[in-house]
Amino acid sequence: MKVLGLWNNNRYYVKLYVSTMPEEMSVGEHKKGKGHLSWWGLALLGLGFTTGTGFFLGSSIAIEKSGFSILLLFLIAAVCTYFVFDALANMIAQHAEEGSFRTYSKKAFGRWSGFSHGWMYWSSEILILGSQLTAIGLFTRFWFSDTPLWLLTAIYALLGVVIVLFGTAGFEKAENVFAIVKVSAIVLFIALALLVIPGVLGKENAHIHEPQSMDHFFTGGAMGMWTALIYVFFAFAGIEVMGLMAAELKQPKEAPKSGKVMLTIITILYVASMGLTLLLAPLDKFNTNESPFVTALKDLKFTPVVHVFNGVLIIAGFSSLVASLFAVTQMMANMAKTGDAPKLLSKRTKRKLPYASLLLTIGGMIVSIITALVLPDKVFEYLTTAGGLMLLYSWLFIVFASRKLLKLTAWGQIKTIIAVAMILLAAAGTLFDKISRPGFFISLGFLVVLGAVTWIMTRRWKREEEASEA
């Protein structure tokens, strides 16, 4: 996921932040894919989309609120994330569609649903883009402290656009490289920690901090776990981009397998590395200004590895940025193609690049960057929190669409109920956190505005339909 960042006096503050089909798809109905991706290729891309600064950096907030119980929260969020992606993957397996999740919302509930789902997702990503770029720039200033922040954000924005200009093939290659780098970094940390704990490496600086009691394990109590849950969910965000790329599968029916493998791998890596991090550094050393991995490595005085992980943070943030740019550009082009956005935005080059939609995304990104640079810290923090919450609201559309379009078994019904309940529970937890609370209400404000626009457009579509029938 993306980490939404703020700064003050050169210190960094983290804030996490669809043609008509039959109403119901019959089990076993399947559209043969015309794509090029294998299931494992999609799984690798998924690792790149989800393993971002939401985990590498934002988990510090969850640690601060919940302590060692963050390990349980990662397991809970992983299961619920799998339920959401499984709902999307099964719709893809039965009928792969361009536009992915918003297309299924449209088929399930009508044009209003696809329209609002698409614009909700686009808005959430645009809100987040500025903070992603700011975070990457701040990480880079760890090495180049005298370089202006605006220049660094402009450089990374340009690089992100260049990768998108190479089209789907270039995007896939870049994200595959990013995924390998990030996963390798986590594996490196796990190996390093396993050498430190028995005293093979860094024995003179090693201090193991295991929980001494149940109270120590559940440091923040039930309320701490509740308010931390939203931040752990953000560490798994990116599955919606994986859903968009699933349209490129050779065999769409293998989409569920990709998600299961990817989430299994990522959960093992998350829990193992986070558990070792908590053992290597005392709880009171973790803070929202730096990655928990950097905190643990600094405590061991492994300075060279700290520099390596700063590089990983930059790659993780840039990977999330590129994924966001690609996803919203493709989403907007699909919306324009189906009439849910201005037709101009469906224009493509001979290489099928949706240049008009990309220009809109670049414009939105520029506004987001300027907002990040000029708004007071707290105001910008609230906006980016709202963007992160809206991203999770889009997951609810996916789950409800699957309940409408698929013939679910009893267990399938239970899975969707659990997913909805946990997402709502995580969002509600922000009401009890003074830092997150304003962002929650701003996200509701965005939903009200989007609902009003959708209502106006619904009336317009009805008039157009009546005029065409006259």
UniProtKB/TrEMBL annotation:
GO terms for biological process: amino acid transport; transmembrane transport. Gene3D superfamilies: Amino acid/polyamine transporter I (1.20.1740.10). The chain crosses the membrane at residues 39-61, 67-85, 150-171, 183-201, 221-249, 261-282, 302-328, 353-376, 382-402, 414-432, 438-458. Keywords: Amino-acid transport, Membrane, Transmembrane, Transmembrane helix, Transport. Residues 43-403 form the Amino acid permease/ SLC12A domain. It holds the Pfam family AA_permease. Its main location: membrane. This is Putative transporter YcgH.
